[in-house]
Specification:
globular, 15 strands, Rossmann fold, 7-stranded mixed beta sheet, 6-stranded mixed beta sheet, 2 domains, single chain
């Protein structure tokens, strides 16, 4: 059924169709509308679930960790400082191999206080072991939640999935969204059957003390499961397309890459603006293409190599920065070309921090800079006079 919905409500509608038994969250801008909508569904009897009100994001993450550990499909959401307050539990959830879905409404982190969008929050916990997805639009954000439960609960994976959607741009934006029928969701997503759970009849320990003789193997196990996800995600995406008729792309999606000499690589809602800029640049005679990275963890290195093999220049656009280093997406992408006989000129650009507008002119400036000196971390549209104050 198609409807004109706010992004947060569309996500809530789809999460409800996944039949989570426990939902817990603490309100923080701009993710609040998602869990507010789910709480309303529960209170009105439209969703059979237990909504647990808590005093902080750390507690919300702890509640859903406990719920999944007892074999119950669960959901939570957060943003910015809230996600960082969850950080201790975020690592525990992955380390204990708990399948869970979390929506991150991406927002800048303090200080100074900023409630607008960038992707710094998720990048701060990128190495926790979670599978990380980034949505381009509201429809994709909704669809990715269905896929997230399917991938997370697969017995080859057993890792949590975080679906990232740009705060305000997608969470509060209104789009026509196709909300699937419950029968189709049930066909795509079977009931959760845990590989293991806490049970008094069959006691076990989760998150035990691991000495040096054991701990490294736990990290290797997560790494191997992440690698398994690189194979599973395209399969789940293909099944999703077969049932619902939409292509999420799975790992990556290309736009006008067939003959592209210059390729812009990015994640999230900025992709829409980049596509428009590419269309205009094509009219100017420049062979520009776009590569959207949907799956950031596990990093789809081989898939990216395959589509960029003929490009001469690559612009990687990050909406986050590893301060003292480079943009995270740039760092990962540049690394995969090490040791290759043929590799494009890879440039890194940082844009849109703290919600600064990313316009078509911004993207054109990035493309114009490709022909200049190679750069690893260039900030676009910075007010130098302000920096001197």
């Amino acid at each position: 059924m198609k409807d004109f919905l706010e992004g947060s409500r569309a996500v809530a509608e789809v999460v409800a169709l996944c039949r989570p038994g426990v939902i817990s969250a603490y309100p923080i801008t701009p993710q609040t509308h998602i869990v507010e909508e789910l709480a309303t569904m529960v209170s009105e009897g439209k969703l059979k679930s237990q909504f647990v009100n808590v005093e902080s994001e750390h507690s919300a993450a702890s509640v859903v960790l406990g719920a999944v550990a007892t074999g119950v499909r669960s959901f939570t959401a957060s943003s910015s400082q809230g996600l960082l307050l969850m950080a201790e539990v975020i690592f525990n959830i992955a380390g204990m191999r708990m399948p869970l879905v979390l929506t991150c409404a991406n927002r800048a982190v303090s200080a100074p206080i900023n409630i607008w969008n960038d992707q710094q929050d998720v990048m701060t916990i990128r190495d926790s072991g979670w599978i990380l997805w980034f949505a381009e639009d509201v429809q994709e954000a909704a669809d990715l939640h269905l896929m997230a439960y399917r991938v997370s609960e697969d017995h080859q994976i057993m890792l949590p999935v975080m679906v990232n959607m740009d705060g305000y741009i997608l969470t509060h934006g209104l789009e026509v969204v196709d909300i699937p029928e419950q029968s189709l969701v049930d066909k795509f997503l079977p009931p959760y059957k845990p590989l293991y759970k806490l049970d008094t009849k069959n006691p076990l320990t989760l998150g035990f003390l691991a000495e040096p003789a054991y701990y490294m193997e736990t990290r290797v196990s997560i790494q191997r499961s992440q690698n398994n996800a690189l194979k599973l995600i395209p399969e789940v995406a293909a099944d999703f397309k077969k049932i619902f008729g939409r292509d999420t792309g799975g790992l990556i999606q290309g736009y006008k890459l067939e003959d592209a000499e210059q390729v812009i690589v990015a994640m999230g809602s900025v992709i829409g603006t980049i596509k428009e800029a590419a269309d205009e640049l094509r009219k100017e005679g420049k062979k520009v293409g776009v590569l959207k990275v949907t799956t950031y963890r596990p990093f789809p290195a081989q898939a990216i190599l395959d589509v960029l093999k003929n490009a001469s220049e690559v612009a990687v656009i990050d909406k986050s920065i590893s301060l003292g280093g480079f943009g995270p997406l740039y760092t990962d992408l540049a690394a995969i070309f090490q040791g290759k006989e043929k590799s494009p000129k890879v440039n890194g650009f940082v844009v849109g921090l703290g919600g600064r507008d990313i316009k078509i002119s911004t993207i054109k400036e990035v493309v114009n800079k490709l022909s200049g000196k190679q750069t690893s971390c260039e900030f676009i549209e910075i007010n130098e006079a302000l920096l001197k104050q």
